[in-house]
Design brief:
The structure is a single chain. The protein has about 130 residues and is α+β, with helices and mostly antiparallel strands. The chain has a six-stranded mixed β-sheet, covered by helices on one side. The longest helix has 16 residues. The protein is globular. The mean pLDDT is about 95.
Length: about 130
């Protein structure tokens, strides 16, 4: 699978994530994929387990992709994941093997107020 095809698969994945289309969302993963959340110390093995864990999540979710960058088998997506109206700035690192995601690691960061010590150099983004 070439980079254009991977990028198109990522676009479909994030659109399906935002639409709560759990079947389409998880087509990107290998059957033996591994998902890690380092901040909570969780590891989920297997495409079906990843899908089931996300389907069981009770919050209303929205996904807003800020950018996707990658090459070869390593792709990074920066996005805002909003749970019940509360944003979390998120990075997803996906490692592909044979055209499907073999491993994904997600990092989450909550918004915070800007520091006054750097105010003179800051351009607000929100």
């Amino acid at each position: 699978m070439g980079e254009r095809e991977i990028r198109a698969a990522l676009d479909r994945h994030w659109a399906a994530s935002d639409a709560d289309d759990f079947e389409a969302e998880h087509q990107i993963y290998r059957e033996d994929a591994v998902l890690e959340y380092p901040q909570s110390g969780e590891r989920i093995r297997g495409r079906r387990n990843i899908q089931a864990s996300r389907a069981a999540q009770p919050n209303r979710k929205r996904f807003t992709v800020r950018r996707i960058i990658g090459a070869g088998d390593l792709w990074v997506t920066e996005y805002v994941l909003t749970y019940d109206g509360r944003p979390s700035y998120t990075v997803s690192i996906m490692e592909f093997r044979d055209g499907k995601v073999a491993r994904e690691t997600q990092y989450f960061g909550n918004p915070f107020e800007p520091g006054p010590s750097r105010a003179q150099w800051v351009e607000p983004t929100r």
